[in-house]
Amino acid sequence: MVIPFRKILWVKSVSLDPGEMAYAGRIGREFDLHCSPDDMDSLGDPEVGDLIVLIQHEQATHLVEVVGATVQERPRRTIKKGSRDERFTMQRTCRHVLLRSFEEAPFVEQAFGIEPAAEGGETLAIEELPAIVNGDQPLWMVQRRVLNALQGPSVRTLYVTRRQRQDDGMPQVDLREFLQDRDPD
Fold it and tell me: Which band of pLDDT confidence, cut at 50, 70 and 90, is reported for residue 155?
């Protein structure tokens, strides 16, 4: 499947508790992307067919396509009572395009080549991020880099585990340093 990198226009921070994957699913399946009423307008900004990068726990884990025309109120039966889920009463239908587990997903800075500063659940236009507006990287370069990072070799493939290095007598290398030194292009 060819993914048009120029459709990667948005980024949204999502997360559950540490170690829990938000919006797990299968490629090609539709799901409802949730937001709070405060973030409803920003989730309504992407056009149908636009792609959103979902980030969680400092990693780019999903690339999703917007398929629902509007943001809608979530049915009450789908909201878990007594949990933080009660804050997210709005939804928009999306489709999984790419999914990476925490063991495979690139760190956000590695995927974007910048710090997107996407926090809090608002859906942000990548071209309007301060690092793009004030930086020297054109939007298309960031879009291509994100797609390459999500499609490329996983962190697990590129990084020899600490235990294996110890067993082989190899020096210890910090995973973040390893990824920063790696050129994804």
Answer: low
